[in-house]
Amino acid sequence: MIFDINHEIHDRRLYNVPTANEVAAVFVGEDSEIPTYRHIAIYPRGQGLQKIQIIDPNCDPMTYPFLFPRGDKGWYPELQKN
Predict the structure, then answer these.
(1) What's the domain range around 59?
(2) Are 3 and 18 in contact (CB under 8 A)?
(3) Other beta carbons less than 10 A from residue 17's beta carbon
(4) Domain assignment present for 9
(5) Around Cβ 59, how many Cβ atoms within 10 Å?
(6) 11 belongs to a structural domain
(7) E-strand spans in the chain?
(8) CA 48, CA 44: separation in Å to the nearest integer?
(9) Could you tell me if residue 14 is inside a domain?
């Protein structure tokens, strides 16, 4: 494998870092109300669709792997404050 570090990039936009810091969510409900029961859909290997609640201790590690690199459990209602 050869990398040409002296090669000039012709289109600088190709390697620009994204600058947006916005997040969007879409809720589908009746009368434009936010649903009270929310869940996250996951597809484990070799299995079909599964839904977990947003308060599941495995939700944070799956959503933010850099914050939980060893797969430690995230926040959940019974978490003790130390």
Answers:
(1) 22-76
(2) no
(3) 4
(4) no
(5) 19
(6) no
(7) 39-42, 50-53
(8) 7
(9) no
